[in-house]
Fold these 4 entries.
Entry 1:
Amino acid sequence: MSTFYLTTPIYYVNARPHLGHACTTIMADAMCRYRRLRGDRVFFLTGTDEHGERIAQVAAAAGKSPQAYADEIAAAYRETWRRLGITNDDFIRTTEPRHKKVVQEVLQRLYDAGEIYFGEYGGWYCFGCERFYTEKEIVDGKCPDHQTALTFIKEKNYFFKMSKYQQWLIKHLEDNPDFIQPDRYRNEVLGFLREPLQDLSISRPTSRLEWGIPLPFDDKYVTYVWFDALLNYYSAVASGGEKTRGLWEHVEHLIGKDILKPHGVYWPTMLKAAGIPLYRHLHVHGYWSLGGSKMSKSVGNVVEAFQLTDKYGHDAFRYFLLREMNFGLDASFSEEAFVDRLNADLANDLGNLASRASTLIAAGGPVAQVTAPVEAADRAIATGAAEARATLEQAMEEFAFQKALGSIWAFIGAVNRYVDTSAPWALAKDPAKRPRLERVLCTLADSLGFLGVVLEPFLPDAARKIREAIGAPGPLALDAAVVGRLASVPAVRKISGLFPRVDTKSPQGEGSKGEGSKGEGSKGEGSKGEESGGGKIPIADFQKVELRVAEVLAAERVPKSKKLLKLSIRVGEETRTLVAGVAESYEPEALVGRKVVIVANLEPATLMGVESNGMVLAASHEGTVSLLTLDKDVPSGSKVK
Ligand code: MSP
């Protein structure tokens, strides 16, 4: 059993939690859940950074004491993490006595060892970053991160002799290429170290700032924010007794790229000077920006973006953040992209699979002993699961959540196709095919069991629902995620509405009940029928719909859409473009030259950037999508009634 101790940054209490904070904490949580699945001893720490000038200022502006203000925001963080299902083992606050005690001990030790001296320094300071910037780092006289004016501060302070560790740190980074990951950030730190490293100011005079931890060797000074904050990672376990013994040697940090320098330069040199073993790895992710597309107009800032968790569900939000960001690179958030992912990956791929597989198993099972032979198609599912797990394990070593999820979704796609091709609904009609049906249902139950385990870090609620529905046997452990061992069909409860589709409001948008939903929901579970159970319509209403024969002249996939094909069709004399949601069932080439039936008088709608003029008719049942074609040839443009 290996030990894994992971930290998030401790967040400033001058503002409430937003999308950015949630991103780091969710990534850390997914990683810790995964490591627990592997059977590791895991300790997951998060918390709040409560001292410093900015917090004192914000509290004063709110007419509160800094402590009262910090209490309020720290509580908001705790509550947010609880709601998001974050499984942290501890929550540290820098105003807690257990933290202050360790900070003072380390300060005293460094002072006694001559690592801290009293001196004077003048430089350009950013209150947002709570650090000085060197001439080289300043862009147009402003902080490169906040783009705000810097303040020149010159005062007597205590300094940590950071400069003396420059060569040592360069060597450490060269000898340990995986110390800071991904590589681009290791290179960035090596870049900082090409310039002479300055000593680090670690204090503020109490005459200017009282809201900090007093220096044990001079009570007219408090310690400066980074020296206080970084030590939280150590103080949380140094003061924890039996529960946290042996953890420190395994510590790994997860941060956003904005705080690379403090973590990549200040922190290792502080640890080295204090004689504390260094952290094992620093994992650095990129930044979210807000996309500018239409639907996302409603999302003006990171706080509003965060509110989408409540609108669309915590699992969906977690999934989007993990799936859409390439670890280490920046990503763009928009409500539109979020809803697209939700509809395509969660409602359609996973939701439909869970629904149709559980419905089929519930109807055909349970079976105590499946005797039919394992066929190539069944074996392919078992192999697919093993491959998905291998990729998952390798991706998680690198915090590559996107890749991990990609591998699971490749498996989900394979199982959806397996349902299509093995067509259990057809097998069920023929008693002679009962043994084969049982084998297929067994493979499906096995696949759901696999998903109930491997999805746990990424979609904790949905994974639990899947496990509950199949009465998941055995412990929740990665080792149990194997397809091919099950020899029975368990009693399964139908899983419905795991991820309801979000109607994107446009009358014909992907996901509305118009064009999009036909192909999109084509793996359907019969729900379309339920939706259309309204009252009867007079014939005059039906006559408003103009149905015509059309010939497909050309067909191609709509870029970035799994479901949509762009068709060029001829309707009588007229040629027009139409988008059809059938890409998962028909190759574009297979449609060229065919005659189909369309609704010719629909208002145009734009789907994934392509204007659609009309709608192709298709039937769908249990995953089979079948286009309406003609029994005898008639010219394109002919009326259908
Ligand atoms: N208190 C310091 C950290 C001290 S750690 C010893 C701090 N706090 S913060 O509240 O500003 O949080 C910064 C962190 O929040 C980033 O490193 C990142 O983890 C997360 N993010 C904040 N905005 C973000 C984005 N827009 N995108 C991604 N993550 C972001 O700095």
Entry 2:
Amino acid sequence: MAARGNFSNRLGFILAAAGSAVGLGNIWKFPFEVEAGGGAAFVVVYLIFCFTLCFPVLVTEIAIGRKTEKNPAGAFVALGFPKWKYLGVLGIISGIIILSFYNVVAGWAFGYFIEMAQGNFDIGNQFSDYITNIWRIAVYAILFMGATALIVSKGVSGGIEKAAKILMPTLILMILGILAYSFTLPNAMTGIKYYLVPEFSELNLRVVGGALRQAFFSLSLGMGALITYGSYLSKKENIVSSAASITLFDVGIAFFAGLMLFPLVAYSTGGDMSNIQGGAGLIFVTLPGVFESLGPVLGIVIGSLFFLLLSFAALTSTVSLLEVPVSYIVDEYKANRNTAVIIMAVIIFVAGIPSLLGNGYSDMLTNFITYVGADSPTDFMTFLGQLADIFLLLGGFLIVTFAAYVWKKANLHEELAQGHEGYHQSWVKTFINITVSYLCPALLGMLFVLVVLNNFFGIDIIN
Ligand code: PHE
């Protein structure tokens, strides 16, 4: 297996997988999902989903990957179920879709780093001009895809793992640094209260579905990223405890990102949280003004540090997104890694062009589709994001169902027991047993249907 590559140790695997998980999802999307979903009530539902529904899917994906040492499509064939290959293909397609638009947003973040470093705080007010300045945004997107491709081309231990070992600790230090600073600002407590005091009355199907989608996306589940990374993991390592570390890492970073952001926002609004801007704007529109209010020197330091951090977080995620199709081409077509990287990076960049144009530049792509029952159209990038979310839920549902009823639980447990002494006697085994066979298929299947009806057809069965 030397040709495919391997993670050099458990820490390398955990950092790479956590690097995949921690990304724009945690720092850009999580805070505004929290804001839209009733503050801490959303956080509570999110945490429950992460540990009960997502963790078992994470464990199952890693087990399938490690058992077969294959890419997501090849893995199902290697287990002896060639028809299930299409589940892997669905995952690979989901990954390509996600990377196509994710790379565009990552490029925005990187561009903001450059603006902040020059002290251009006014960029927040010019956000819509910024994202319609197509050539400039395209250059950032190309640079970002180039950096991603470079890391992936260096292979598993020499590229992916090495990048994660440098970027992840740096990321943590930057978050803690900004967090500590934000706590010293006036009105910090107002921001924290806003973030952490739950309003359970705001919970509804949209919020619950949103929490599940966010959890899946944030943990990189349902598309085989973890099957791929698991395929490079040594048999000596304990899958369950590694998966627990990855989940805690991801949830922890999302939580701290919120703790760091809301005091900053509260400071800049003078403690008035009644009309802070949610959505994409929370980071790209509001934050530059927040940094400006810190004064010219600190503003530049904290502001550029923040957007650099966001770029680093995105980079370890784009790396995992590119690795999935690359591993597929390398395994199945015996292609050279560099060739596979170049082909996929170019295809995915081109696939991202409509997302690049759909934020105000092209009218058609900006008002791409109007869902049944919606008052206003949805842009192409948001549409792709919603489509991908749905694919991830479907993928996750099918992966656990496959493991429990097609591959069979005994085989899953056998793989999980490798490198985990005492697994067969542990409560974790019972937990995995119940969740993978009943809880995950039932709830994921049901929520998948509800989310599709709600998102695309405007139907809300619960309310
Ligand atoms: N988990 C990443 C994030 O939160 C996004 C991602 C999704 C990466 C799926 C890989 C696979 O930003």
Entry 3:
Amino acid sequence: MKLTFRLTKMFVFLLIISSMNSFSATKTEVKELICEYHINPVGIDIQKPRLSWQIASSEENLLQTAYEINVTDQTAKGKLIWTSGKVNSAQSVNVPYQGPALKSMQRVYWQVRVWDNKGKATAWSMSSFWEMGLLEPESWKASWISIQSESTEKGSKPAQYFRKEFTAGKAIKSARVYVTSLGLYQLFLNGQKVSPDLFTPGWTSYNKRLQYQTYDVTSMIQPKNSIGAILGDGWYRGNIGWVSQNGYYGSKLALLAQLQINYTDGTSEMIGTDQSWKVTNNGPITESDIYNGENYDARKEMSDWSKTGFDDNQWKKVAVIDQSKKMLIAPQGVSVKAIEEIKPIKLITTPKGETVFDMGQNMVGWVRLKVQGNKGDQITLKFAEVLDKAGNFYTDNLRSAKCTDVYILKGSGIEIFEPHFTFHGFRFVKIEGLASQASLDQITGVVIHSDMKTTGTFACSDPLINQLQHNIQWGQKGNFLDVPTDCPQRDERLGWMGDAQVFSVTAAFNFNVAPFYTKWTKDIAADQLPNGSVPDVIPDVLKGGGGKTAWADACIIIPWTTYLIYGDQRILEVQYPSMKAWVEYMKTRAGEDNLWTGDWHYGDWLAFATTQSDYPGATTEKDLIATAYYSYSSGLLAKIAGIIGRGEDAKKYAQLSENIKKAFIHEFVTPAGRLVSHTQTAYSLALAFNLLPEDLIPKAAEYLANDVKKMGHLTTGFVGTPLLCKTLAAHGYQDLAFMLLNRKEYPSWLYPVTQGATTIWERWDGQKPDGSFQDVGMNSFNHYAYGAIGEWLYRYVAGLDIDPEVPGYKHILLAPHSGGGLTNAGVEFTSLYGKVKSAWKLDGNDFVYEVTVPANTTATVTLIGAKAEQLTVNSQPLPASMKESLKQTDTGISVNLGSGNYQFRYPKK
Ligand code: BGC
């Protein structure tokens, strides 16, 4: 660094010249066009879709001052159907289309150009498109079809195969298929699967919202064609819910598909499901169930069943059934796909003599089996997350879920098997029935999850914390399977609300979850009870139970998170009635005194517990939690009402929140600042949700800190855990927060890591140091809730924080915190504006901080312990532009930044 001060005049001159050169070569362009968070979506049903773009520029301090969007209609040969005109606005994210209403199947193209604060306009962007789906029920000309008859026995039934042949006589201009089902479907055209999407049509509150998918199949259509589909039970009529209920949504599988072919001569044709289709349930998938697995008898394969010329004489006529099309909706989320493949790392023979593959990673999906043997040989694959103390295969924690795939060989050389309508959560695979020695190359792990874009990476100098981050990300991969589930392995796999809300900010750092949450929150509203109560799981398959504090509040917290991270105001508008109904429901439960007492809740679920009589564990009173969340959610609702222009409600709910706070203080806080539940969770809630009188805050924080010191570890459950470190750090106890992070013994985040965990465990002591297990009734090794610490790693340790006043990273708060013995930590995050970087390292006596601020955003950097005169930026003294905004306080300095890359350096005492 000192070198910079010794630069010769010549060198300075060169620098100026080169910067002038780069100035003359500056380029600003608009790129990464997305519509409703998707690139070129096909088959959407949003009438005013929102358009976003990024600005790439070699110039610093770049802001957009205006934009212009042009939308042209493909069918009108590029005729302009809407222009925004030049709009003086800095908005580049989620700008709504305001043109004429679009029709079913209409495709439009759009381009954008922007003006910047340097007075320049960019060129028009490349064009992108979006295409509408079938917007009204009448556009569905096809009929729902189903098998005429099948066994009426309860339990998994064979998958159903549907087919039809048709000709497409003329030159094809375009072809789309619109398709959905009751149950899960896989669609084929001329022997090929139409899309890599899995578990379609996805899981929604089926009776109210059923998604259909739209696929562009133009290139798949031939003069003679065969279209076919396989239907499996899935969530619709398979086992779902923790009492293994079968057929929750219905007992009949059905298919609805409509293929629209447009010819170059301007004519078009529609091939839809109708009475002319044929069906059989005598195919190779003899059983399929999400919990129990799939049975596949390859001897029953019907080769080329979805190609033309197949002899379907033995197949039966379908029944056309009377099933509504009114609840059909286009997907807004992201589809589930096979995202990556992993190879087993070890082949084990257990003490019991079992042959077990170790995948090296607790993963979700299935294995692709490669096998050779005799016709009729039966291979059984069983799945487990862990081995027991003795090293044997262990499945007790899967409860009633059989998690077993069975493959019966057809006996013709090398055979490959992958299941269709089931998934497993596992690290270990037990194989039985092989004719010869197992070999490592015999199976491949296929990792499936919702196809969310990875947005965040966190890394630091401690490998154990990096493994924790890895485990958090894998916990999310495994449990973001169309809905956010609690776990992926046992007979549960449900959209538990509490788990989802505590993890939502962490989730939004790791991956782009905006479309995922947009879809799921609509199911919250759909399943909400008329009295405003919100079910415990969404989609609700537990028959309407709900109204639990910190669980139901997901209906407010998740839209709020989506707003904070993506600046998405529409989700607030769309979900507003649901959020308001929930607060109103709490009001009816709380009554006049504003205390929500007496109702049963999950509370601080799975908090630290002991068997000692003098300290049974950290039990936080449920009435306290309920009243705290009641105030918090009312306060959020007030903010949300303000943001979406409902001033009256904003005032009303702010007042309500304030009144609840007063009641909380009166009921749960002593005049000395002690809480009636003297637990880490109670103090974290009261401090984080601002439920204490100003003067008692330091005392309450001290009580919290003292408890952490006394115990030497965390004692929190699902409710307290996400708040603990951030609350300690916010009140001057950063060292204790880092102590908790660094702790390696039970209970802590790193204890499972030291035990070889590759995902987050449900229990702090899922597997004890002696190898024994927690209660089999509830012991998942892939439960993301405690992974909520990820938020603190990103926001506090790496220092990439959110400005709630200017959300979506339009204004970024950057405030890195070193501590806990770390020598570096950093995050790279792909915001909707582009890449943000916040990475620090200790370099000798210096604290070095690297930052990237994307175009069309600004940032405020806070550097603890820095003094203006000692600070360099990109090896230069603080430039005048930054000095203007500089604020020096006792603890450090802050400066405002425009877009660009910066390196700050200052001596750290
Ligand atoms: C789930 C949880 C859930 C809880 C309710 C459990 O069975 O796995 O994660 O939140 O029930 O407390």
Entry 4:
Amino acid sequence: MSRRVIVRGHSSTHTGLCQWPAEYHAAMPSSPHRVTAIAGDGVGPEVVASAVRIIEAAGVAIEWEWADAGAEVFRRGDSSGVPRETRDSIERTRVVLKGPLETPVGLGEKSANVTLRKLFETYANVRPARELPGVPTRYAGEGVDMIVVRENIEDLYAGIEHMLAPDVAQCLKVITRKGSEKVIRYAFELARREGRRKVTCATKANIMKLTDGLFKRVFEELAEEYAVEAIEAEHLIIDNVAHQFAKAPAQFDIVVTTNLNGDIISDLASGLVGGLGFASSGNYGDDVAIFEAVHGSAPKYAGKDVINPTALILSSVMMLRHIDEAAAADTVEAAVLTTLESGTVVTADLARQTGSDIEHAASTSAFTDAVIANLGRSPAATPARAVRPTGPAPAPHPRRSYAPEVYAGIERGLAGLDVVVESDLAADALGAEFESLAGERFRVEFVEARGTVVYPATGLASDTVRAFRARLVASDGTVLGEEDLVSLLGRVSERLRWSEAIRLQVLDGEPAYTKAQGQ
Ligand code: NAD
């Protein structure tokens, strides 16, 4: 290969988050690939520089568009952390290699990472965890080789939070059929393209019957479609998945799960194969893919040239496959595995795990040099995976239409109203208050605190807090209309401090709400 990497320095509008060595700023002739590079915060510039040097040495021609995001951008007063120029660059290149971005701790500011993933609808966060040579773990020799596919947009990460009352907070978990279908189909397609045999769906559907229940249902529907590919499909409760990860992780192949579950179990999976220093990831959407290490900005190591760059190098291997540079991806991956297998160039995190001399651990740049020196070599004992995906995943075709007419065809009924109020009244007194507010058209089904019924008294011991939810449903023989709900809410607001009201719907004859504990 005679191609060269072309790395462009920051443009005048991009005040540098990091200073790149002069040799990276040379503009080269036009090249086939354009990638947006975000150096990121903390150790980001060091690990991104490492991956860029290796890609250059492997001879892949990439024109980098350097762009800013993260802490410095927040400090400049951009509350999104992702400036317009960066968004424009990603719209042009559709591929991003990025370092970690610091999430400012404080009210009002959202994570720039989450913003980036959502802005470009990168709905599948793909995190491989594979046993690596030279990286001792409790499971060495068992052949751990799994991929966690984490839904990347929805769930508690929708970030919809409210204080229902002082000292009572709520975060809404949002799961949609469309969002679930996209990521679950991605997982099955990945299994097909990689020749993998099993997809495990991990949820808490036993407790969250409507949200995780929907995710599980969509999984079961798609599993039927992929049964012809001889891909085994199983559903496990997420806590059992955590247990099985610790006991026998090699049984897993592809695990697809909701956003927060995926966040936690993918970090757990990386711990099984050596830790965050080795955990790579790709965020895939239909149009844009973002490649980054799983780890954060590790601020205590910033600028010290001691961080392990393997995670970002392996993320850049995923990027090379995505941009159809499969041969270069194989070359870089083999060089990383060869370096790890040799055991002679060991970064501090690995030295700590192996009990070797941390004083003489390899620097980030020395490890990078070793990988470059090993380009063209293959590890002696680590077989390559037989099938590897190349190029972007095919755009998923939805299993069913999400057109307005589908939803217009759903039969809807009104069953009542849930109202959240802040009150210092005792449960029975509050229940009596709602009884008097119910009028002829409603009856009080229950009042609950933190999900447990406190009125009518059930005998369940429950420490009440100052926020209660009352459920008022149609009294016998009443067919509720819009005006009944509005009138009820009007009566409630005259006597009580309410913070949330949710209509109780019946969709195609099924209640679109859950019962309370103890009901
Ligand atoms: P972290 O991943 O930065 O650090 C966790 C621990 O792992 C630390 O002890 C760290 O030193 C170590 N570590 C991380 N990467 C390593 C590597 N490559 N080699 C060796 N050791 C490594 O997590 P944190 O401290 O919770 O977060 C720091 C900041 O990063 C926060 O602002 C957080 O929001 C942000 N963050 C960003 C991303 C992202 O950009 N995708 C991901 C996670 C956290």
